[in-house]
UniProtKB/TrEMBL annotation, chain A:
<dbReference type="GO" id="GO:0000727">
    <property type="term" value="P:double-strand break repair via break-induced replication"/>
</dbReference>
<dbReference type="GO" id="GO:0071162">
    <property type="term" value="C:CMG complex"/>
</dbReference>
<comment type="subunit">
    <text>Component of the GINS complex.</text>
</comment>
<dbReference type="InterPro" id="IPR036224">
    <property type="entry name" value="GINS_bundle-like_dom_sf"/>
</dbReference>
<dbReference type="InterPro" id="IPR056784">
    <property type="entry name" value="PSF2_N"/>
</dbReference>
<comment type="function">
    <text>Required for correct functioning of the GINS complex, a complex that plays an essential role in the initiation of DNA replication, and progression of DNA replication forks. GINS complex is a core component of CDC45-MCM-GINS (CMG) helicase, the molecular machine that unwinds template DNA during replication, and around which the replisome is built.</text>
</comment>
<dbReference type="InterPro" id="IPR021151">
    <property type="entry name" value="GINS_A"/>
</dbReference>
<dbReference type="InterPro" id="IPR007257">
    <property type="entry name" value="GINS_Psf2"/>
</dbReference>
<dbReference type="Pfam" id="PF05916">
    <property type="entry name" value="Sld5"/>
</dbReference>
Automatic annotation (TrEMBL), chain B:
<dbReference type="Pfam" id="PF16922">
    <property type="entry name" value="SLD5_C"/>
</dbReference>
<feature type="compositionally biased region" description="Acidic residues">
    <location>
        <begin position="1"/>
        <end position="19"/>
    </location>
</feature>
<dbReference type="GO" id="GO:0000811">
    <property type="term" value="C:GINS complex"/>
</dbReference>
<keyword id="KW-0235">DNA replication</keyword>
<feature type="domain" description="GINS subunit">
    <location>
        <begin position="76"/>
        <end position="144"/>
    </location>
</feature>
<comment type="similarity">
    <text>Belongs to the GINS4/SLD5 family.</text>
</comment>
<dbReference type="InterPro" id="IPR008591">
    <property type="entry name" value="GINS_Sld5"/>
</dbReference>
<protein>
    <recommendedName>
        <fullName>DNA replication complex GINS protein SLD5</fullName>
    </recommendedName>
</protein>
<dbReference type="GO" id="GO:0006261">
    <property type="term" value="P:DNA-templated DNA replication"/>
</dbReference>
Length: 186, 224
C-alpha cells in the first residue's frame, strides 16, 4: 500500500475547527456536518479542515494528545516498556505531519511536538524491526500486533511479507517430498 | 399520505441492498473495508456488486444534483471533494480486482466453473466477461506468435499450469471484528507443533492467509 493511501485514510479522522464564516448544515454522503457559525467549534473530517485552513476560513484546534506534556509521558512509557504501548490516535503520525505542515500556526510549540512524535515513532519502529527479526529467526507462524498503527505496519509490510514468502518457498522445496504439498509460483 | 411514501422508499432501499437498511455512511465504510481486503489478500475476494452499485447510485445522484448548482458555491465544492474521495476508493477497488483477474485469470475462471449453483459468484457479470475475453485473447496471442510454429505435439497449452496460482500461504495483517476461538496455527517447520489461538475482538495479528480466508468473507476479520 502506498503511504499516501494511508494518509488518505487518516484524512477521515475528525478534528475540531473554529470557522470564521457561517454555513448551514451540509448533508454529505458520509454523514452530516455543521452547521458552521463563526467562533463556534465544530467537528469536521481532516480533509475538509485542511481545505478550510488553506483558504483561511478556519482555525484548527489540535487534538488533546497533541500536547508537549502528554507526548513526553508517552515517549517515556514507550522507551520503558518492551511491548508496544497504546498510541493516542491510530493515525498519530499522519495527523501530526498533516497538521504541522498545514496548520502549524494553530498548534502551540509545534517544533517540540514534531520532535517528540518523531522520537516516539523511531522508538516504535526500532521495536518493530526487532520483533520482525525474532519472528523470522524463530520461524513463528503467528504474531499478535496489538497497538500497531496502519502506517507502522505499512513500513515493513512489503519487506517482511516478501521475505516470509521467499523463505516459505525455499523451505517447502526442501520438504517437498515429505509434505507432498504442491506449490507453483514461478 | 406522506407516511406511505416514506414506507415505499424504505422498502425500495431494502431491495437494493438485500439486507437491512444501510445508511450511506455505512455503505461507504463497507466499500472501504472491501477495498482494503481486496488490496491485501493474495487471491480474489467475492464480488461486492450490491455495494458497488449502491455507491455508484449515490455518486451519480449527487453529481446530477451538483450539475444544477452554479459555480463557486462553497457547499457544492465540499460535496465535490467528497464525491472525488469516494470515487477514488471505488476505482482503486475495482482496479485492484481487475489486476488480480489479469494475474490469475485461468484459476479465477476455473473456480467460477466449478462453483455450485446458489453459491455466490466470485466475479460480477462485467468482470466475468473481462476474464473470459482476457483468456481468449491471451490464448490467441500465444498461438499466433509461437504455438502454431511448434511441432504438432507441443501445440497445446494448459493455461492452468502456465499461469501461477495465487499463493494462499502468504502472510497477511488483520484486525478482528468478531471474537474467534480456536484458530489452528500450522507449524512452520517439522520440529514445531501446531497450536490454537483465540482472536480477541479488536486485536491485530499476522498470520497465513489460508488460515483465516473464510473469516474474511463472513466479515469476522478485516485485512489491514
Amino acid at each position: 500500500m502506498d503511504p499516501s493511501e494511508v494518509e488518505f485514510l487518516a484524512e477521515k479522522e475528525l478534528v475540531k475547527i473554529v470557522p470564521n464564516f457561517s454555513l448551514d448544515k451540509i448533508y454529505l454522503i458520509g454523514g452530516d456536518l455543521g452547521p458552521f457559525n463563526p467562533g463556534l467549534p465544530v467537528d469536521v473530517p481532516l480533509w475538509l479542515a485542511l481545505n478550510f485552513k488553506q483558504r483561511q476560513k478556519c482555525r484548527i484546534i489540535p487534538p488533546d494528545w497533541m500536547d508537549v506534556e502528554k507526548l513526553e509521558e508517552i515517549r517515556e512509557l514507550e522507551k520503558r516498556e518492551e511491548a508496544f504501548t497504546p498510541v493516542p490516535s491510530p493515525y498519530y503520525m499522519e495527523l501530526t505531519k498533516l497538521l504541522l505542515n498545514h496548520a502549524s500556526d494553530n498548534i502551540p510549540k509545534a517544533d517540540e511536538i514534531r520532535t517528540l512524535v518523531k522520537d516516539i515513532w523511531d522508538t516504535r519502529i526500532a521495536k518493530l524491526r526487532l520483533s520482525a527479526d525474532s519472528f523470522i529467526s524463530q520461524q513463528e507462524a503467528h504474531a499478535k500486533l496489538d497497538n500497531l498503527t496502519l502506517l507502522e505496519i505499512n513500513t515493513i509490510r512489503e519487506f517482511l511479507l516478501n521475505s516470509l514468502n521467499c523463505m516459505f518457498k525455499l523451505r517447502s522445496n526442501l520438504q517437498a517430498g515429505s509434505s507432498g504439498r504442491t506449490f507453483t509460483d514461478y | 399520505m406522506s407516511e406511505a411514501a416514506f414506507d415505499d422508499s424504505e422498502i425500495n432501499q431494502e431491495d437494493d441492498s438485500q439486507e437491512d437498511v444501510m445508511t450511506p455512511a455505512e455503505l461507504i465504510a463497507k466499500l472501504e473495508e472491501a477495498w482494503l481486503n481486496e488490496k491485501f489478500s493474495p487471491e480474489l475476494q467475492e464480488n461486492k456488486s450490491e455495494v458497488v452499485e449502491c455507491v455508484m447510485e449515490q455518486l451519480t445522484h449527487m453529481e446530477s444534483n451538483l450539475q444544477r448548482v452554479k459555480k463557486g458555491d462553497t457547499k457544492a465544492s465540499i460535496h465535490r471533494m467528497e464525491v472525488d474521495r469516494i470515487r477514488f476508493v471505488l476505482t482503486s477497488y475495482l482496479r485492484s480486482r481487475l489486476q488480480k483477474i489479469e494475474k490469475f485469470f485461468p484459476h479465477v475462471l476455473e473456480r467460477e466453473k466449478s462453483r455450485a449453483d446458489g453459491e455466490p459468484s466470485l466475479l460480477s457479470p462485467e468482470e466475468f466477461a473481462f476474464a473470459k475475453e482476457y483468456y481468449d485473447n491471451t490464448e490467441a496471442y500465444l498461438k499466433a506468435v509461437a504455438l502454431k510454429r511448434m511441432p504438432p505435439n507441443l501445440q497445446s497449452i494448459d493455461m492452468l499450469k502456465a499461469v501461477p496460482e495465487p499463493c494462499l500461504d502468504s502472510f497477511v495483517f488483520l484486525r478482528v471484528k468478531e471474537k474467534q476461538e480456536n484458530i489452528l496455527i500450522e507449524p512452520e517447520t517439522d520440529d514445531q507443533r501446531e497450536y490454537v489461538v483465540d482472536l480477541e475482538e479488536g486485536s491485530q495479528h499476522l498470520m497465513r492467509y489460508r488460515t483465516i480466508a473464510p473469516l474474511i468473507s463472513n466479515g469476522a476479520v478485516k485485512l489491514i
